[in-house]
Target: Undecaprenyl-phosphate glucose phosphotransferase
Amino acid sequence: MIKDNQKHFNRLHVVIDAFVIAVTYALAWLLKFKSGIFYNPGLYLSVQVYFSALAFIVPVYLILYYAFNLYTPKRVQGRRLEAANIVKANTIGLLLFFVVLYIIKQVDFSRSMIFIFYCINIAAEVLVRNVIRYSLRNIRKKGFNLKHILLVGYSRAAEEYIDRIRANPQWGYVVRGILDDNVERGTIYKGIKVLGRIDNLFVILPENKLDEIAITLSINEYAKLEHIVSLCEKSGVHTKFIPDYNNIIPTKPYTEDLLGLPVINIRRVPLTNTLNMISKRMVDIVGAAAAIILFSPVMLVTAIIIRLTSKGPLIYAQERVGLHNKTFRMYKFRSMEVQAPKEEQSAWTVKNDPRVTGIGKFIRKTSIDEFPQFFNVLMGDMSLVGPRPERPFFVEKFREEIPRYMVKHQVRPGLTGWAQVNGYRGDTSIRKRIDHDLYYIENWTMGFDIKILFLTVFKGFVNKNAY
Model:
């Protein structure tokens, strides 16, 4: 029933999208040629020519929407992701439109009208889809359009799955219970009861009252997996597998097909790709050079004040661990009194630390002390964006205490990073910081770097946790 409803909904969604595309195109034409808002030198093509283009625009845009996963179920798809996909699909559509007009040498077709359509259609699609999303959530809250699920196996994966469903009732998921061979019947986790043994599938499946079965076996019970999948497929119930090793396998695993044998890489690192690595390095060089020129007055004034207010070198060079576990000298403006190497290598800076100088408090709080690291970026030791590098003493300490800590050294360390713009700087949770670093490493894109740099400008420079 759920599958049929989803098919009907997708067809309706396609019709709605086609209507929205046609209406926004007509509105763009009216705004360009009839409203008087935009400059209009004259209508060189007839109305029929402009609107005959819809025969090309509507199907192409619907195909693009399908290609960008805009017809997948909205239960768990985020609004931001959906809006981003709408922008991407419309941008490709805009470029295709321009290319076609260039190929057919149609110079009289208004490019500005096409751009107006591009802007209006994005806004309308985002609005319409949020209205649909809001309506569906209200329907589900009233007990309609629900998806009934049975979990097979009591494990960490089962508990995490239940946690997420309970935290997001708008998804419309209802967990009917859990089957497990090793947990006592009647055991309850957050309102979800263990109904019995896995063999009860023989009784439950023929009743045909389930929409989905989620296999959430604990990792030591995977020997039963093939048998359970076979049972579920015979019943025709949609079955999905939620692995109990999600703390090992990344959210978006990198898979390979080895002559029909699926191979899952434990860690996906986009920056191991040569093209990605070169493009990021080019941006680093250009960005670091521009930053040195832009901030040179600030660095000059800072150097003068440090020289006048305390004894010691202007620049402080500290050993850090970088790409492929190789150490390098990371540069900072000196913000503390000169101390013995053994004293500073194994101690955190704490609040009201007496070692910090007067100007040191200010430049640490505003991150000005980090500006010399632009030279580290130029030399190739660091990147503009990446996990922050740590001292060897702490690397040895954390590699034993925190799982996957050393994965951060598969990419160049950065001046700023995803952890830093999310507030994990200074004396904050190392585990949370590593979680954010790993997310960055596995999900790197050039756009992600730009986003982090943008966030750094607005909320990353001033560090409330810098002492």
